[in-house]
Structure formats: structure tokens, C-alpha cells
Write a structure and sequence with these properties.
The protein is α/β, with parallel strands linked by helices. It has 12 helices and 18 strands. Bound molecules: adenosine-5-diphosphoribose and zinc ion (2 copies).
């Protein structure tokens, strides 16, 4: 079948809307008619070359859609079901999957690194040339084939535009506070970078019962939003050292948890420097592979600090996403407020320009 898709041909270029050929789903695969695709910074990392993906590829890893067709042996979904793509495929059987760490599954890593399905092939072609997938889900295509293990059935009555946000920004952001940091009630938190993912770290910390949540960003509009999402204090990093501002807000002690949700070595160091004794810095932002962060090693010992990272909110998406949907439905998670803008699919480049300019919390393209 022919489908409109946004293709990245080379690093540094914009996306081109093309009519690509989509092969029918093979055994264990599903064809999804996408309703919405989420505009997340991780795709931008691929476009600007910070994050490598084989090219040409169809990007997009957040979204929602309706199952159009299923391949042989598919049991968990049927045509007409509403689904979310899960951008880290997990086999369900390896040591990591068995230990409740599906984001670390080697099969997901293989799909991520090759831009292909596990059999080494793709389901997209343009003028006879193979087009790669992104994270096995390529949500920036009207129709996309995904492994069955990469889709999660969601309630039919959840609006598909709201639903789309759960698959990356929400499960990553809320998950990192709850699963990775295990934020304790009454503790102090700094969230450095309050964009689409960071705002969810703010609301995840609030859910977990943090006493003080300090939002750090360069854009005042983002800081205002962060207050709406539960931040008790805000720091504009352009107005002087963010580390000192965070320390001033905590009687000089520093915070128990500092999250870096941007992807810059400098702000990762700021997260570490903002910590109190026994504090934990959690890195969420993606840097180029070659990037390094240095930290004063003595503080690891004398202050028992921790620095760690978290992928996909260290979540178990099949358990956690339905819970997050329930939390939204009872008014404990802000999703409507997160969705700042919706663009027709054809204006996807404009959506990324607006994200880069810091104009939106989270936006979507719709098909
Ligand atoms: N100091 C403070 N805030 C900054 C700085 C800085 N030096 N540089 C950028 N920011 C802010 C931006 O103003 C923006 O609000 O960081 C935020 C980043 O948000 P988004 O662009 O919406 O990115 P998001 O989709 O949230 O992803 C953030 O998490 O999952 C990863 O790959 C993703 O590395 C990316 C990060
Ligand atoms: Zn994302
Ligand atoms: Zn596995």
C-alpha cells in the first residue's frame, strides 16, 4: 500500500513528505493506521546528528493509532483496536525483561541500532530503495508496520490525541521520578529542563509527594507551565548560576534528586552540583555518543552522592501506561495542559522548528 510519510534522508536536512510503499505485516507484526504522532526532542536529536539512526528513515516514536491489519500469529490485538507504539521493543523473555527492565532488552537495542526489524529487513520502500524504521515504530507515517511486541492496546474511549502523549513523554517523565529515582514524600527535587519530558518529571515528583520541586529552564513560559504542573519554585538559568539558585532555595543544602532532561553535559554537571549529601542525579537527556561528563570524585565518597541514568522512565510500559491513563482519568495527571499545539501532518517541519524555539510543551501532528 502507499502511505504518506516524513522521511529523513540526511542529517541536517528537514523532513520530506513522500509517498512510500508499505509492505503488509508479516508474521508477528501489525499494520497501524496512525492517528497522531508526537513531536519529541529525540527525533530532533536524530535530525541534527546527535543520535545516530541508519538513514534514510521514517522518524517518530510517540503516537497513537488504530490497528488496520494483523500478521500471522498475532494474538494481543485485532483490527480496529486502538494502540500506542512502544518505542523500545522488548522480547519478554530475556534476563532484563524477566527482571522488569524491558527498556534494556537486547532485542530492542538491536532494532534501535539497525533501523530494521529483527529479521534485518524493513517494511518501507521508496522508488525501490529500502527506508529504515526508527525504534521499530516510525510514527511519522500514515500507515506503519510494527512488531506486535511494540504495540499496546489502549481503551477505545481515550481520545487518540491525548493517548499519543503517554507513549514517550508521560511514561518517561513520570516514570523517571517514580521508578528510577523513587522520589520520597517530603523530599526536594530539581528538574533541569522543563520541556515535554521535564514537565512530566515535575508532575511525577508531585505524585510521589515531593515537598519542594524546583523547575530550571531558560524560557519563562516553560517555568510558568512548570508551576502549573506542580513546581513550587522556579529558576531561570539565564539569570545567574542555576546551581547557586537551587542551593539558595534549599538553605544551601542542595536537593535530594536532580533530573537532567535536556541532553547537555554542562546541565548534567549542574544536576550533580545541585545535590545535597546522599543526593541522586538522574540523567534523562540524550547526548552525542562521544560526550562525557566529569564530576568531582571525592563528593561521591564524602557526600555519598549518586549519579545514574534512566531509559524510557525505567518503566514496564505494559503495566505502567494503563496506570498512568487511570491517573489522568481521575484528574491526577495533567495531559490536556501538556498538549499545546496540533499541526496537520504536512506541517511537521514547522512543528519541529517551534519545538526548537521552545514554543510548545508537547505538540502533535495528526493524520
Ligand atoms: N538550561 C536550562 N534549560 C534548558 C537549557 C539550559 N542550558 N537548554 C535547553 N533548556 C530547556 C528548553 O528551554 C526546553 O524547555 O530544556 C527543555 C527541553 O525540552 P524539549 O525541547 O521539549 O525536549 P524533550 O522532548 O522534553 O526532551 C528532553 O529528554 O528524552 C530526552 O531525547 C530527549 O534529550 C531529550 C530530553
Ligand atoms: Zn520521545
Ligand atoms: Zn528481552
Amino acid at each position: 500500500m502507499i502511505s504518506k510519510a516524513a522521511v529523513l534522508f540526511e542529517v541536517g536536512q528537514k523532513l520530506f513528505i513522500k509517498e512510500v510503499e508499505v509492505e503488509p505485516p508479516r508474521s508477528g507484526e501489525v499494520l497501524v493506521k496512525m492517528a497522531a504522532g508526537g513531536i519529541c526532542h529525540s527525533d530532533l536529536h536524530v535530525m541534527n546528528g546527535d543520535l545516530h539512526n541508519p538513514l534514510p528513515a521514517i522518524l517518530g516514536h510517540e503516537g497513537s493509532g488504530v490497528v488496520a491489519e494483523i500478521g500471522k500469529g498475532v494474538m494481543s490485538v485485532r483490527p480496529g483496536d486502538h494502540v500506542l507504539p512502544l518505542w523500545r521493543m522488548s522480547c519478554g523473555e530475556c534476563d532484563y525483561c524477566s527482571a522488569g527492565r524491558p527498556a534494556l532488552c537486547p532485542e530492542g537495542t538491536k532494532i534501535r541500532n539497525t533501523g530494521c526489524f529483527l529479521d534485518g529487513t524493513t517494511r518501507f520502500k521508496l522508488d525501490g530503495t529500502e527506508i529504515k524504521h526508527f525504534l521499530g515504530v516510525s510514527t511519522f507515517s500514515e500507515y506503519s508496520v510494527m512488531p506486535e511486541k511494540s504495540v499496546l492496546r489502549i481503551p477505545q474511549d481515550l481520545p487518540l490525541d491525548r493517548a499519543a502523549l503517554f507513549g514517550c513523554g508521560v511514561v518517561t517523565g513520570v516514570g523517571v521520578a517514580i521508578n528510577a529515582a523513587r522520589v520520597e514524600p517530603g523530599s526536594t527535587v530539581a528538574v533541569i529542563g522543563t520541556g515535554g519530558v521535564g514537565l512530566n518529571v515535575v508532575q511525577g515528583s508531585l505524585l510521589a509527594g515531593a515537598g519542594k520541586i524546583i523547575a530550571v529552564d531558560l524560557v519563562d513560559k516553560k517555568l510558568d507551565l512548570a508551576r502549573e504542573f506542580g513546581a513550587t519554585d522556579t529558576v531561570n538559568a539565564a539569570a545567574g548560576s542555576p546551581v547557586e539558585q537551587v542551593r539558595d532555595l534549599t538553605d544551601g543544602k542542595g536537593v535530594d534528586y536532580a533530573f537532567e532532561v535536556i541532553g547537555l553535559p554542562a546541565t548534567m554537571r549542574q544536576a550533580y552540583d545541585s545535590l545535597a549529601k546522599r543526593g541522586m542525579a538522574i540523567i534523562v537527556g540524550i547526548t552525542p555518543r562521544s560526550a562525557e561528563v566529569s564530576i568531582p570524585s571525592l563528593s561521591l565518597v564524602y557526600e555519598e552522592r549518586t549519579i545514574t541514568g534512566s531509559l524510557y522512565g525505567s518503566s514496564r510500559p505494559r503495566i505502567d501506561i494503563p496506570k498512568l491513563i487511570d491517573l489522568y482519568r481521575v484528574g491526577k495527571l495533567k495531559i490536556d495542559e501538556l498538549l499545546t499545539r496540533t499541526y496537520p501532518f504536512e506541517r511537521i517541519n514547522e512543528a519541529y522548528e517551534d519545538l526548537e524555539r521552545g514554543e510548545v510543551a508537547r505538540s502533535l501532528v495528526t493524520f
